[in-house]
Amino acid sequence: MTIGRFMLPSAVLGAALIALLALGDSPSQGASERANPGMSKLKGVATGRRAELRPTIPIASQPGGETRTVLSVKLPELNRGDTVRFNSEVVITTTCVEQIGRCIGRTYDYDPRLEGRVVLADDPDATKRDTRPVSGAVGLSCEQTRPNRNHHCPLVIDNGSFTVRELRDLPCKPANCRLNMTVDASHRNASSDQFVVVGSDQPDGSVEGGKARLSAAVSSGRLEITERETKAIVHRKLPASFEGGKTVVYSQRLTGLRKGDVLLVQARQRTAIQRLPYFISDQIVVTTRRGATRPSGLTRRIVSRSGLASETTGFNCTIGPSAFQSPCPAVKAGMAVIERTPENKRGRSKPLYVNLVSRGFPKLAQSARGKFPPARIVKGGGLEVRRLRAAG
Which residues, in sequence order, are CB contacts of 335 under 8 Å at separation 6+? Predict the structure, then answer.
């Protein structure tokens, strides 16, 4: 399965990840794109910080038995001919290998099957009835057995789109439509009071969110789209750092940006480890330097979400078999809206950079703090940015 120009592993994607279903055909991609004639409109919307709607999902004995909405974003009022482009990501975490303080529910030692998809709905809690799927399912089995335990398993839906052909085909009133990301967890050995966590379980038994986002760009009329892609690795090593240690892996320079532009970003990273499992995390930021690991003062002021195009997501990269076995695939998706035209102090256009930032460190459960070899970034990844702009 390809997303953009990247080949993604079947363990990450499961079934077809991107599908445009009954609402219309996906628009063609290219250096520029024309939608419907007439006035051009473009608006980007996204969930806020700590957007997860619930802390846990019950594990069902059959797929689809306990589907839950984990993210929801309200769309602008939809009109005939509108095109909606979207992406979404969420971290799902297994819990309760042992009955310890951080355990939520009863212990289990099987590997739950996770599946996520995006649906069009009229209510944040809608999962099946009165909804319409607008993406295929992304799925994987999240390894629970040590030493190859993934623990955290991101589900990513990227490059999704649909076009509204007829308003009567919508499962919602045009002014009240929402995109929901739904997730279900299942295993044939599941019993009552067994859960996966939406976010990350904490030592005190609480759940930490802020590791998910659902974004959408809604457009009508003529739309200009330019694509920029890089496969050039900025840094090939991630230092084994328990504190800090963030490193730029890919960077894409963008020029001529204007107020109102929407940036849709997709990335893939492949990370190789040795000796021990490593935790690998990634985030997409918009900044003013190729080597910057965080948004600059300027991009915090002029880019949506203070220059953060995605949340930070991560997983345990393992030596042995798992959904994230070395060289471990990391898939990212994000969006940023340019809220003010980037200019320097002389009023001239200033280039911005979209950076994929990563971090890695050995798992403490299998190691004591000390000096460890860095994780290595290997070929097969890249970063792509599509700039959307209303024409005219």
Answer: 44, 46, 87, 215, 216, 217, 262, 263, 264, 265, 304, 309
Can you give the residue range of the structural domain that contains 55? 2-390
Looking up tokens 């070929």 gives 379
Average pLDDT, the chain: 90
User: 46: which 2 tokens?
Assistant: 């996204």
3-state secondary structure of 284: strand
Extract the tokens encoding 332: 């990212």
Residue with tokens 């607008």: 134
Tokens 């030493």 belong to residue: 147
Look at residues 241, 250, 213 and name the one whose alpha carbon lies nearest to residue 353.
250
Amino acid in the structure at residue 197: V
Q: Give the separation between CA 271 and CA 282, rounded to whole angstroms.
A: 11
In angstroms, the first-to-last Cα distance of the chain is: 35
User: Could you tell me which of 41, 21, 283, 293 has the C-alpha nearest to residue 162?
Assistant: 21
Look-up of token digits 């077809």: 16
Q: Per residue in 149-186, pLDDT tens? A: 999 999 999 999 999 999 999 999 999 999 999 999 99
For 291-312, the pLDDT digits (tens) are 999 999 999 999 999 999 999 9
Q: How far apart are CA 61 and CA 388, in angstroms?
A: 43
> Contact, 21 vs 119, CB < 8 A?
no
Buried b (16+ CB within 10 A) or exposed e, 21-56: eebbeebeeeeebebbeeebebebbbbeeebbbeeb
Q: What's the pTM value of the predicted model, to 2 decimals?
A: 0.90
Asked if 385 and 252 touch (Cβ cutoff 8 Å), the reply is yes
Which residues, in sequence order, are bridge partners of residue 353?
253, 287
Q: Which of 17-21, 133-137, 234-238, 364-368 has the lowest mean pLDDT?
A: 17-21
Q: What pLDDT digit, counting tens, does each position of 160-170 carry?
A: 999 999 999 99
pLDDT digits (tens, 9 = 90+) for 332-353: 999 999 999 999 989 999 999 9
- Contact indicator for 345, 316 with CB cutoff of 8 Å: no
Q: How many domains does the chain have?
A: 1
Tokens representing 5 are: 């120009």
